[in-house]
Amino acid sequence: MNHTTLVLAAAALLMSGCASFSPDGGFGAVQQLTQERTGQTPVRLNHAAGQATPQARIAELLKAPLSADSAVELALLNNRGLQASFADLGIAEADLVQAGRLRGPSLSFARLAGGGLVEIDRAVIFNLLGLITLPAASRIEQGRFEQAQLQAAYEAVGLAAATRRAFFRAVAAQQLVKYGAQVKEAADASNELARRMLQAGNFNKLQQMREQSFYADASAQLARAQHQALAEREGLTRLLGLADTPQAFTLPDRLPDLPAEPASAQDAEQTAMDKRLDVLIARRSAEALAQSLGANQAARWINGLDAGYQNKSQTGERRQNGYLLDLELPLLDLGAGPSPRLARAEASLLQAQHRAADVANNARSEVRESYSAYRTAYDLARHYRDEVVPLRKRISDENLLRYNGMLSSVFEMLADARDQVGSVTGYVEALRDHWIAATDLQTALTGRSPDAAGKGNALSRTRAVSSTSAGPSH
C-alpha cells in the first residue's frame, strides 16, 4: 500500500478504537438524577447477564407495613415496565458507540480472461466521508445518549410519583373501610333497636323507617368503600410489580399526620426551569437536532466519498498501483429550493424548538397550579383537623351529657353519630388529597408534568423526531 492508504487505515483504526461502552452503561447519571428528585435510587436489572433480582431487599421491605418511601423503593426495584424503559438507554449507548466507529473497508476483486491474457483488479476502499464526519456524528449521538439518560430518569421519577399517589389512595381507602364498618355496625344496632321499639309500640313507623334507611345507606357505602379499597390496593400492587402476589404487602392503619407548616413556593418557576426533566429533555432534543442540521449543511453537496488503494495485474505486464476516489453527488436533489434532506432537518429543528418552548411554558403554569392545589389541600385538611372534627366531638360530648342527664334519647345520640360520618370521612379524604397534592407539587418542580401519563404528551413525539432526524452518513 502507498503512503496515503496507510494514513487512511491508521486514522480509521484510531478513530474506531476511541468508541467503547461505558462500565455502567450510563446508568450512574440516571441514578443520580432520580435520587436528587425522589430520594430513592433505581436499580437496573440485567437478567441476560445472569444478574438476579434483588429479592433479599424486596423481602425485607415487605416484612413491615409499607411507608410512602419504602413503596417507592420497592417499585423502583421491582417494576418490570420501568426496567423495560431502561433498555432504551442500552440502545442509545449502542448507537453512540456505533457512531464512533468507522464503517469497515470494502474489498474489490475483478478478473478478466481472454485471448490468453488474464487481467486482475484489486482494491481496498474506505469510507472517507464517514471518517471526516465521524467527530460530528459522535457529538450528535452523544447528545442523544444524554437525552436517553434524562428520559430514563424521567420514567423513574414518574413511577415514583405514581407510586406515592397510589400509596396514599390505598391507605385512605383502607382507613375509610374500617370506619365504614364501624358506621354500619352502629346503623345495624339502631335499626334493630327501632324495629323492636316499633313492635313494642314505643316508636312510630316513620321513625323506624328512617333508622332502616340509614342502615341501608351505611351498607351500600361500606360495599362501595370495600371495592374502592380493593381497586386502590390493586393499583398499588401493579406499580410495585407484585401483581402475582397481591397480599404480599401490608399498609399502615392510617395516613401520615399533616405537617406543622406548609411548604413555601420560593423560586418555584425557576426551579422547574432548571430541574424539570421534561424541560431538559426538550432542550436537549432541540440541541441534538441543531447539531444534526449543521452536519447536514456541511455535507450538503456530497452524499458519499470513498477512497482507497488499487492495483492492476495483467499477463506479461508489470503490476500497476494507484488509488481511487468515489464521489457521490446529489444531482437529483439539486432542483429549485433547498434539498429535501436539508428541508426536513430544518423543519424538524423548528418543530423541536417550538415544542421545547411549549414544554417550558406548560411547566411554569403547572407549577403555579400545583402549588395552588397544594396550599388549598393543606388548608382544607388543617381546617378539618382544627375546626370541623373538634367541633363535631364537642357536639357529641354535649349530647352524651344530655343523654346521661336523660334530656335526650338514644336515637338523638345515634342521629348525632350519623352527622359525624361526613366530618370524619371528609377529614380522611382531605388528608389524602394533601399528600397527593404534595407529591404532584414536587413532581411539577423537578420531574415532569403531574398528569403527563394521561396526556400522551409531546415529549414522546419529540423523541421520535430526534431519533429519525437525518444526520451525516458514516
Characterise this structure.
With 474 residues, the chain is α+β, with helices and mostly antiparallel strands. The protein has one domain: Up-down Bundle (Outer membrane efflux proteins (OEP)), CATH 1.20.1600.10. The chain has 13 helices and four strands. A four-stranded antiparallel β-sheet has the order 1-2-3-4. A hairpin with a 5-residue loop joins strand 3 and strand 4. The relative contact order is 0.13. The C terminus is likely disordered.
Number of domains: 1
How much of the residues is beta strand, in percent?
Answer: 5-15%
Question: The CATH topology, please?
Answer: Outer membrane efflux proteins (OEP)
How helical, in percent, are the residues?
55-70%
Ends distance? 23 Å
Main beta-sheet annotation: 4 strands, antiparallel
The total strand number stands at 4
Instruction: Assign the CATH superfamily.
Output: Outer membrane efflux proteins (OEP)
- Class in CATH? Mainly Alpha
Summarize the structure.
The chain has 474 residues and is of the alpha+beta class. It has helices at residues 3-17, 27-38, 55-63, 68-78, 80-99, 128-132, 134-200, 205-240, 268-275, 277-298, 340-404, 410-446, 458-468, and strands spanning 106-114, 117-127, 304-314, 320-328.
